[in-house]
Amino acid sequence: MSAKPSAIIFGGLNTCSRALAALLVPIEGEPLVSHLRIVDKFSVSPPTTYIGSEFPKVLEKPNVEYLQVNLTVPSKVAPCFEPPAGQEAYSIVFDLTGELQWDRSDEVQIKFTFSTARHIALEAAKHGVRAYVRLQLPFYECKEKGTHDEKEDVKPDGVRGFWWHETLRMLASIPDLNLVIVRPGMVYGPYVDYGVVIRFMAVAATYGYIKQPMKGLWGPGKHPTNTVHVDDVVGAMWAVAQWMGQIGRKEANSIAGEEIVYKAEKNKTTTEGMAPPDQKCIAPLFNIVDDSHVSMLALGNTATSLFDTSFEFHNFIVNALSAWKLEDNVEEINESHVVNWTEMLAKSDPPVTKIVYNAYMDLDHLKKHVVAFNAQKIKEVVGYQLRRPQINQETLQEIIDKLKAEGTWPNL
Ligand SMILES: *[C@@H]1O[C@H](CO)[C@@H](O)[C@H](O)[C@H]1NC(C)=O
């Protein structure tokens, strides 16, 4: 019997799964798990999505296996739990599934977020896994001022926010599931092509290129846009998995349980497996953000200083009274960013031919989002220590250097 657990990662190839896999089975050094299976809808060889230059090396490790599975099909979920010959049953499940696009319908969110997680979780409960770690991306509007701890009332943002949040209530309502939830701020890191931070960096790079100040919306920019390095998202997931494995759900709930409240507004669509609105759903929940607790302005200053330019705000006021509508101006806002980024890619030495990163900010990226979390609880309860406590020029430069080395970021 191996002393190390074995683990499955479901979904998240486009978000944090690759970094999680690299933590569990490092390219150099001792693996933390005896066996790792990664399951997602993409092909990885040849890749049908961007996977960065490090992940293929993780996949080559002997104790790592990748399965391409359509997890929206319930009958395809159970076989994922059957370990390869000679391996013990899986004891940890990392659930990073869920639809990321902000503009998808209820039907799409139900199928790809809610029901997918439900099928995986029911199967995990049946197998009695020791820990089921759900990654809850920050599809919330937080309050600008407050404690920002896990008890603070946060509002799910739109259709995507509603279904991701309802997924937590559904998971919490599965009694025998050793569920623990990790809720990060805005994720950034090497090879993380998902999220607003990397877009913001590409836009900042275009302003550096044309030697002009970058102009942000939403002045004065004091609102929190808390960030977290992907190393700490996955570090936190591993830490809570071990914590849960030792104590189980009941005790975890009594130590760190939070009520996850029903939050429907206009959205009244229902689906099979939803917890009734009046049901008290309690699950251990941990925020994870870095110690920088950046505002929009601080993030803008850090990103632009990297490219030798500065960050300012447009001097018109964007509010409900103004005739100016963000929805009507997305293309205009992006025009110069896209043109300049394309020019930078072409002029790069060597030229960038595989286009992964871009400077296009969609409506959701451009909207004002307040992401404000406090990560004290995971530090106190689980003893987690941040690996990357600050977002600064060095952490961002490291990303750019890695992307330049793999040929996905312009080298000018
Ligand atoms: C996955 O299965 C669903 C349901 O059968 C189907 O609608 C979808 O097209 C499939 N996706 C892929 C990538 O095959």
UniProtKB/TrEMBL annotation:
InterPro entries (UniProt xref): Epimerase_deHydtase, Lipid_A_modif_metabolic_enz, NAD(P)-bd_dom_sf
Domain annotation NAD-dependent epimerase/dehydratase: ranges: 176-245
Pfam families: Epimerase
Protein name, UniProt field: NAD-dependent epimerase/dehydratase domain-containing protein
Organism expressing this protein natively: Phlebiopsis gigantea (strain 11061_1 CR5-6) (White-rot fungus)
Source species taxonomy: Eukaryota, Fungi, Dikarya, Basidiomycota, Agaricomycotina
